[in-house]
């Protein structure tokens, strides 16, 4: 699991499952926030620009791959990423939502 944050203001942008190769951020791999994960029902042309909610910095542009999966093409230098190591087993009392 990977988390990305704005490189300008360090605001949380998104958490997603992936390999860590971040050229493309596929919408269907986004776990949080819901406001981004919900975009998966949109088409490429309806997808808004990915901007930081805190400082308005532009982070990614809508695109899609050959199979039609929608994604954001991330702008180099606009974000930082960090891997999250899953150290704990999920508790039945914890909800991810
Ligand atoms: Zn920002």
Describe the structure using short key phrases:
97 residues; mainly beta; four-stranded antiparallel sheet; globular; binds zinc ion
Protein model, in words:
With 97 residues, this protein is mainly β. It has one domain (2-83). 4% of the residues lie in helices and 36% in strands. The chain is built from one helix and eight strands. It has one helix at residues 34-37, and strands at 2-6, 12-16, 24-26, 30-32, 50-51, 58-64, 70-74, 79-83. The model has no long low-confidence stretch (mean pLDDT 88). The structure holds zinc ion. Zinc ion binds next to loops.
Q: Helices and strands, in N-to-C order?
A: EEEEHEEEE
Q: Residue-averaged pLDDT, rounded?
A: 88
**How many domains in all?**
1
* Through-space gap between termini: 16 Å
- Weakly predicted, low-confidence segments: none
- Overall outline: globular
In this entry the ligands are: zinc ion
The amount of beta strand, in percent, is 35-45%
What's the number of helices?
Answer: 1
Number of strands: 8
Largest sheet: 4 strands, antiparallel
Output the structural class: mainly beta
In brief, what are we looking at here?
The chain has 97 residues and is mostly beta strands.
